[in-house]
Design goal:
By secondary structure, this protein is an alpha/beta fold. The chain has helices at residues 9-23, 52-61, 77-87, 97-101, 115-127, 142-154, 170-180, 210-213, 224-241, 338-343, 359-373, 385-399, 407-426; strands spanning 43-48, 67-73, 92-94, 108-111, 131-135, 160-163, 187-195, 247-253, 266-272, 278-284, 292-298, 301-306, 309-314, 345-346, 430-431. The radius of gyration is 23 Å and the shape is globular. The chain binds nicotinamide-adenine-dinucleotide.
């Protein structure tokens, strides 16, 4: 293989130094090694909705002794049973979540129900004095955002976390620190897609359960693809750009799965940010080739990231206009050819911080990194981000640690979904109410 097309030791060391610079910063929510906790010190929680996501959370929660599930609630008996079996802690079961919230011995509640139910459940849980974890998207209707803000302000001591688990991923945290350190330069564009080749439909044992089990395909309960898929990625774009969008144009339709659903099977949306940055999002349900990832592009580099995998690509030095300019190479003094810039370098936390390592450890790390560039080594986070998300929530409740995906992150995320859907439905550009006027923007305009 030609030298230019390979990742050289010199390039590895530069990458490692860059990642190390990011890694030395405190990484919020990084999972600590569990200490043995006695059960009286554990957070006592209940969960509302033990369907697919509720059971995923319970699967990870079952390995977290800092919390103890004392109650589960679901209105669909098979799922209620599945939840009890998954957690295995013999919780009391409920069909009516309000009854569950009456329990005085419960510290926290997790909500993993259809989207249209989130806001009321959050409000009821806060007013019952419970810490709250609510799945994304945090709420369904625009006006619910302020209601939740008001309730949260009335209960400042209660944790409120939204279920955007990428916020708990060490890999994403590292990527964001690299961005902060300037590895990508000025970010102007994010492209993200979530492509599948499936109808998204769940089999129903009896037609009377169609709406309950396939709620995400009907507009009365669901924000469709933007709520279920894009919400993770608009959050990543907001995080990377460091701002919320100011406007969105979007289109979509029910063009392939004409089976009675009322939410789209394809959506294309362009979000614009205050500095002119754009997020271009694509969701389709009839081709899986590109699957899902986020491609974050700055004038010095690109990051392609998804859960469990991140690749960094440098912009070629050839584009530097003059020393000291905005485009000065982030890798001071490096001469990088176009080819090697395009080669890409895997990022993972353990690729950084080589400074204090012994010769052997440094060589091992180099080998691991080299193997990663060949696809022969795959980085695995020490814990699944879902696990870390649950652990972080328990730590916020038990020890008052900062909430990793708090209220305003959830609000920004929900707004992107709601305004995106409005743009699809109206065919008009939709502006955020507080957007700074630009060009022809009419403040607060819904269309
Ligand atoms: N963070 C993620 O990656 C992720 C992944 C999947 C789903 N989700 C989110 O989790 C939520 C649930 O999605 P899902 O796929 O698990 O749906 P689901 O249909 O599998 O589960 C929802 C459960 O809520 C129950 N339910 C409905 N109404 C109820 C009520 N009034 N009281 C109690 N229980 C009730 C249903 O019976 C069902 O068991 C959604 O907001 C979804 O967006 C998040």
């Amino acid at each position: 293989m030609e030298k230019d097309q390979d990742v050289t030791r010199r390039e590895f060391l530069k990458t490692a130094a860059a990642i190390a610079a990011a890694s030395t910063l405190p990484i919020v929510g990084s999972p600590a090694i569990l200490s043995a906790q006695n059960s009286s010190n554990a957070v006592r929680y209940g969960i509302i909705g033990t369907g697919t996501e509720g059971c995923t959370l319970l699967k990870f929660l079952a390995t977290i002794p800092e919390g103890r599930c004392i109650a589960t609630c679901d209105i669909y008996p098979p799922n209620l049973k599945k939840g009890v079996e998954t957690i295995g802690s013999n919780p009391e079961t409920y069909e009516d979540y309000r009854k569950m919230l009456e329990r005085k011995d419960m510290d926290a509640v997790l909500i993993a129900t259809p989207l249209n139910l989130h806001a009321q459940m959050v409000l009821d849980a806060l007013s019952a004095g419970k810490h709250v974890f609510v799945e994304k998207t945090m709420y369904f209707k625009e006006e619910e955002g302020d209601l939740i803000r008001k309730a949260a302000a009335e209960h400042p001591k209660l944790a409120l976390q939204v279920g955007l688990q990428r916020r708990s991923s060490l890999l994403y945290q590292l990527a964001m620190e690299m961005i902060k350190q300037g590895a990508l330069g000025r970010i102007m564009f994010v492209r993200a897609q979530w492509h599948r080749n499936s109808d998204w439909r769940r089999p129903v044992p009896d037609p009377k359960f169609e709406r309950l089990l396939n709620w995400r395909m009907y507009k009365e309960y669901s924000g469709g693809m933007l709520a279920e898929l894009a919400s993770h990625q608009t959050d990543v774009a907001n995080w990377a750009i460091g701002a919320e969008p100011i406007s969105v144009v979007a289109t979509g339709g029910i063009d392939y799965w004409k089976d009675g659903r009322t939410t789209c099977d394809n959506v294309e949306a362009i979000y614009e940010y205050p500095g002119g940055q754009k997020l271009c999002w694509s969701g389709i349900l009839y081709n899986n080739h590109f699957e899902f990832d986020e491609q974050i592009m700055g004038d010095r580099g690109t990051l392609i990231i998804t859960v469990g995998k991140g690749m960094y690509f440098r912009e070629a030095v050839a584009k530097v206009s003059s020393p000291g300019s905005a485009k000065e190479n982030w890798w001071a003094g490096a001469t990088v050819s176009n080819q090697s810039a395009q080669q890409g370098i895997p990022i993972f936390p353990e690729a950084g911080a080589i400074g204090d390592l012994s010769f052997v450890d440094r060589e091992t790390r180099f080998a691991k990194h080299w193997l990663a560039t060949k696809g022969l080594y795959t980085y695995q986070e020490p814990h699944d981000p879902w696990w870390s998300e649950m652990y972080n929530f328990m730590m916020s409740v038990r020890d008052g640690k900062p909430v990793i995906a708090p209220l305003e992150i959830g609000v920004a995320d929900a707004q992107a979904v709601i305004y995106g859907n409005r743009a699809v439905e109206t065919g008009q550009k939709v502006y955020w109410p507080n957007a700074q006027p630009q060009k022809d923007i009419k403040k607060g305009s819904k269309t």
